[in-house]
Amino acid sequence: MTPPPHSPPASLAAPVVELVNAGFAYEEGPAVLSGVNFPVVRGRAVALLGRNGSGKTTLLRLLSGGLRCGSGSLVLDGAEVAYDRKGLTRLRTTVQLVTQDPDDQLFAASVGQDVSFGPMNLGLPEDEVRVRVQEALEALDIVALADRPTHLLSYGQRKRAAIAGAVAMRPKVLIMDEPTAGLDPHGQERLLDALRRLREAGTTVLMATHDVDLALRWADEAAVLSPAGLRTGPVAELLADDALLDAARLRRPWGTAVARLLRARGLLAADAPEPRTPEDLDVLLEAAARPVTE
């Protein structure tokens, strides 16, 4: 696949889906979210961060229609979502949520049957369903698992099968709750590679995660939940804000800490981008060690 054209700045692009002044409280409980404004812009990779209990999962379920806003509204392509059959079908063909535990979503006898469930429920012709299933299996690199019983899959394979089921719906926005949780480093890399391919094909990806290093490495934008509310912006900018990280009870990303050390020692210019991966650090150090020529 070839990379998509450069995405416009988030501030200039119309959101695909958006929470507008949204609030939510569970029955007989305090407000979990209040006055949340959260646009999800096409073509972006967004990391949603916050401490346990901050409302990340609730926010994801509001965006995907699994929960209904107690106040405010959910807007899809400029029109407020109606929570009737027609409105929710429209929403779920545009926005798909993958839960943290793949066993909450996998229920069919085989991977192929599970991935086909959503498109079949749309009433699509069998040929179209087969095309969508094949595309989703290829995107998640699990074609060889099509006939495998779901109960015989490894945890990482179940994660990718659950995501494939969402991808088969061809959503504009794919929302995932802690998708790398429980995966070993190799499994994480395979999943991130699959997400890269989805982004190149034009899918917007929103990921809730506790991993600030992953967020800095992977995302374009960040959304950070703290007691003060939701703050959004470029990932490198938000994850360099010490006050925000303290309020959200998040640690400093590795790349941010390394960049501060390099700048303190005169090895990184003040306006130079900070390293997001060890490979970035190697490039920076090689450049710093290279003699300056006239």
What attributes does this structure have?
294 residues, alpha/beta, Rossmann fold, 21% strand, globular, disordered N terminus
Structure characterization notes:
There is one protein chain. The chain is α/β, with parallel strands linked by helices. The protein has three domains: 10-94 and 171-252, Rossmann fold (3-Layer(aba) Sandwich); 106-169, no CATH class; 253-294, no CATH class. Helix content is 38%, strand content 21%. The chain is built from eleven helices and ten strands. The chain has helices at 56-64, 85-92, 111-121, 126-139, 155-167, 185-200, 212-218, 235-238, 242-248, 254-264, 278-289; strands at 15-25, 31-41, 45-49, 71-76, 79-80, 95-98, 173-177, 204-208, 221-226, 229-234. The strands form two sheets. Strands 6-7-8-3-9-10 form a six-stranded mixed β-sheet, sandwiched between helices. Strands 2-1-4-5 form a four-stranded antiparallel β-sheet, with helices on one face. Strand 4 (71-76) and strand 5 (79-80) form a beta hairpin.
